[in-house]
EAL domain-containing protein
Amino acid sequence: MSRTQEGAASLRLLLRLKPPTSEQNRESLRDQASLLFSLSMLFAATGVANAVFIVLNFDPLHRLVLPLFGAVIVTVYGLIVAASFIWKRSNNAFGYLQWARVLYLALGIAWGALINALGHYGEADQHAMIIGLALGVISTSIICVPATVAFSFFLPVALLSMVAVAMLHIADTVTMVAFTSYTLFAVVGIICTNLAFDGRSKAQAALRREVSTVSIFLREYQEGSSDWLWETDAKGRLISVPPSLAAVVNAQTANDQDWRLDLIFSASEESGGHPRLQNCLNQHIAFRDLTTTIRVGTQQRWFNLTGHPVHSADGYLTGFRGIGRDITERYEADRKLAYLARHDGLTGLLNRKAFVEKVAKACQEGRRFVLAIIDLDNFKQTNDTYGHHLGDELLVSVAERINSVLRPSDESGRLGGDEFALLIADVDLETAVDEAARLSELIAERLVLYGHSVTPSTSIGIAAFEEKADDAARLLFKADLALYKAKVEGKGAVRCFKRELEEEYDARLVQESELAAAIDNGEITVVYQPIADLFTGQVLCVEALARWHHPQRGQVSPATFIPIAENSGLIDRLGEWILRAALTRAAQWPSSLQINVNLSPQQLISGRFPKVLANILRETGLAPSRVGIEITENIFVDFSESVLEQLTAIKAQGVRLVLDDFGTGYSSLSYLQMIDVDGLKIDASFLRQLPDHKVEAIIRTVTRLTADLNIHLVAEGIENVMQLQWLRGNGIHFGQGFLLGRPKDDPPVEWLDNLP
C-alpha cells in the first residue's frame, strides 16, 4: 500500500506542470525543454515525411479529406517547430512547455483523425499498413518528455487509433488484443522514461549546484586564505602561478626555470623535505604536508605542499594538482619552541633534561670526562636585595662567562635556579680542578647591572667519570655532594668528590627523622595562594602550599624540607598529608572553586599516588573536577611507562593536570602529545624579564600553543602593575602572584581583596 501511494504521488508530480518556485525547478524545466526541443525537430521531420507519404498512397485526389488531415498535421508540426525556436530566443521553459502541451494535443488529435480516415478508406490489403502506422505514431510518445506533453499527444492518438482499429473492423481479435497490449506498454514506457529523465535531471541539477558551490568556496578560499591552489603540466611546470607564490618568488629566476615546481622550491641544507618532493614528482606519487623551502634574498621561507597526480582517460600523466601554504611564521615558531624544549629560556644553555642526556651519553661511550656543578653563592639574597630582574641578568652574565671557556667538545647547562653544570671532556681530575678554579675567578669579576655593582661568587662541585658503573645520576649525586661540601666550607670554593663526602651525607639523614616527626606531630601546615581572572578579579582556584614550623629552628623553607622528603622517601607521607588537608579544606569552600596541589616526581615512584588520590576524594566527598594536580617539568627527567600510566590514571578520575613552571626546566613539548594536561603555568622568570622583546615573543608563542591545545594558561609571579597590564593586553586571562595575593591560611575564595 505504501509503495502504491508513493508511486501515485510520483506520477502526479510527473503529470503536473506548474511555474518554477526554486532554482532547482527552473533547471529541471530547462532540461525538459532542451530535450523536447531536440525531439520536436526529429518528430517534425519524420512526422511530416510520414504524413505526406501515407496521404499520397491513399488516392488523395479522390479522397480530399486525407490531404486536409495531412495539411493539418504538417501545420501543427510547423507550429511546434516555431514554438521551439521561440523558446530558444526567450529561454522561457515554462511557457514553451505550456504551448507544447497544447500543440502536441492538437497533433495527437490530427494523427488520430487521419488514422480513422485511413481506416475508413483503406482496402483490406492496406489494413496492416494502417495498424503499423497507428502503432508507430503511438510509440513516438514513449521517448517524449515531459510526461504531461507526452500524454497530451499519446491519449488522443491512442484512443482514436483504438477506435479506428475496433470500430472500423480493420483488424481481427488477436490483432486487437496485441494492439491494446502494445498501447498499455507505451503508457508504461512513457512513465518509466520520464521517471528516469526526472531522476537524471535532478541529479544533474544537484551536481551543478555542487560544482557552483565548490567553485564559490574555492574562489573565496583563495581570496581569503593564506593557502593557494597549484597545478602543473606533465613536465612539472606550473600552469598558473598563484599570486601568493608569485609575491615571494624571484620572477626572473622562476621564468628561467620554466616555473618548475621542483626547481622553484630549490633544495638547501635546511630543507630535508625537498628531495622527497622531487622523488614524488618523478615517480608520479601523491604527497601530503611536505615541507619545502625557498630562499628569497637572505631570507628563508618555508612552505607546506600537498599534491596528487592527475591522469587522462587513457591513463597518461597530465600533471599534478594540490594545495600550498606559506608556513614560515609557524615553522620558525616551531623551531623556537623546539629550541626551548632543550634549552633554558633565560640563559640559552641546555636545560636539565638535555644536559643529563649529554652526561648519560658520555657515560655510555665510556669516554673520560669530568662533571662540574656550579652554584651561585647568596643568589637569593641578591635577588631579594636588587630584584628579580637583576638576578635574571646576573644568571645570563654567568652563563655567558661559562660559555666563553667552553671548548667544542664541552657541554654546559642550567640545571635550574642558580645552578649550572659543565661537562669537561678528555681531562683528568687535576686539570679539571684547575680549569674550574679559573672559571670561578672569571665569574667572580665585578659586573655592573642596572647601575649596581655586583661581584658574584660561585661554589663548584666536581666529580670525575672513573668507572663504568657510574651513570648520569650517580655522577650528578657525586658532584652534588662535592658542591654541598664547597657551600659548607664557606662558598666561593672548588671541591672534588671524595668517599668521605658520602659518609657525611649519611649523617644528614638525621634531618629526615626530624621531618618524619614533624609530619606525625602536625608541624606541617598548609597555606593557600589564589589564582584569579586578571580582568574581573574572580578567584577561580587556590594553590595549596606546605609550610613547616620547627619548634627550635622556626620556619623551615619548603626548598629545604621538600628535597629532604624526596631524598628520604618521606615524600609519599608528606604529600598524602598535604593532599588530605587541602581537599578537606576545599570541601568547605564554594563549589566553583578549584584546589591545586603540587605533585613531586618522587611521589610517582611507588605507584601508589592514583589510589591515594581516589581514597582522599572519596573520604572528603570533593568533586574530582575541583582538584588540580600540578606537575613540574622535573617529572620528565626519568620519564617512564609507569609515570605515564599513573598520570593517565589521575586524569581518568576526572582530576585536572597542570604543568607548572613551564619554560624553566625542559619545556617538554614532546610529552604534551603523550600527556593530556588541562593547563600550563608559565614560570615567573619570564614575567620578570618583561618588556624584553624575545620574552614577549616566547610568552605569546606559548599563549598560541595553549589556545591551539584548548588548555588554559596561568602566568606565575605577578608582582607589579606593569606585568599585570602586559598580560591583560596580550589576552592572558589567569594569573598568580604576590600582587594578587600572598599565600595564607584564609585566602579569598570568591573575589580578590584588591585588584589593580
User: Anything to note?
Assistant: Residues 267-271 have pLDDT under 50 and may be disordered. Residues 529 and 742 are 6 Å apart (CA to CA).
